[in-house]
Amino acid sequence: MIEGRDVIRAKREVLLEASPQPAMPSVITGVEDNMFWVSLPKEGNQVLVLQEGQKIKIGVSLSRGFYQSETTVLALGKNKDQFYGLAIPKEFSESQEGRFVRARHATNVLFKAGSLTAQTALVNFSAGGVMVYLVPQLTKILQSGHKITLTLNIDNLSFEQEVKLSWQKQYANIPFAGFEFVNISPQLQGVLAALSIKYTEGKL
């Protein structure tokens, strides 16, 4: 659990969800005593339509994992930068996606499956897997049905590891994919856990 006021900060990206509408990204643009303002939540041509008094879910990706809470629409704004005023949640709880500390780290990742290869950029990593940009070559690998391995170099640690697709999502029209390590050795998982903590020290 994390205090809501520690999470709600200006310029932080959040994900808002009001079922049955799809979750959409937004940005916190201002924080007041008991509420905060977000920009117009949209994805492509779709926007998230909310009503005053409506309860919605809010998610935020922090260095230590993905956290979620529930909030209420307190006010409807008059411009796209202050579109909805939402209640500051009392606390955020870690979702099941975030069992491991996630660290942001810029490097390239090489995926292989059969005779296919794809190079993309790492978004973040943990002892449980990686999040990367979903490039067209990687989509072909996913469609091939072959066993997938990745090669990654973090802080002079170079390793090759079998992975499986965990999820695919789009944030602000940019496709991402999450991969889970398959049969990873306890030794390698321990080293990655230590590295993820190293890269997130002092960060929320």
TrEMBL record:
Give start-end ranges for the coiled-coil region(s): none
SUPFAM superfamilies, sorted:
PilZ domain-like
Pfam families, from UniProt? PilZ (PF07238), PilZNR (PF12945)
PilZ domain residues are 99-195
* Single GO term (MF): cyclic-di-GMP binding
Using the record's annotation, list all stretches that form the Type III secretion system flagellar brake protein YcgR PilZN domain: 23-89
Give the protein name, as stated in the record. Type IV pilus assembly PilZ
- Species annotation: Desulfotomaculum nigrificans (strain DSM 14880 / VKM B-2319 / CO-1-SRB) (Desulfotomaculum carboxydivorans)
Lineage, opening ranks: Bacteria, Bacillati, Bacillota, Clostridia, Eubacteriales
